[in-house]
Specification:
By secondary structure, the protein is mainly α. It contains three helices and no strands. It is elongated and about 45 Å long. It starts with 6 loop residues before the first helix and ends in an 11-residue tail after the last helix.
Length: about 90
């Protein structure tokens, strides 16, 4: 799944569909950043990051916290989130 695949649900009148799309977008971005950081750790990046690694680590933490909040809300609001790989 790519970000473009979430557009329809992001514009839905149904808040549960928008909620799911928000979660999907977060997981897509989270996984992309995680992949980039793994490459950084292996010195396999094809560019030089402009921010320090600490900034990226803070972003990963914030995204992880955001993910946990969305998952908790989904449980409380009976929103069935799709199974996505975003550990």
């Amino acid at each position: 799944m790519e970000l473009k695949d979430t557009i329809k649900n992001m514009t839905s009148e149904d808040y549960k569909e928008r909620f799911i799309a928000e979660y999907q977008q977060l997981i897509i971005r989270y996984n992309a950043l995680k992949k980039m950081l793994a490459k950084w750790d292996k010195n396999e990046l094809n560019f030089t990051p402009t921010c320090s690694r600490d900034i990226y680590d803070l972003q990963m933490k914030a995204m992880s916290d955001y993910k946990a909040v969305l998952e908790t809300r989904a449980t409380l609001e009976s929103v069935n989130l799709p199974e996505l790989n975003g550990d």
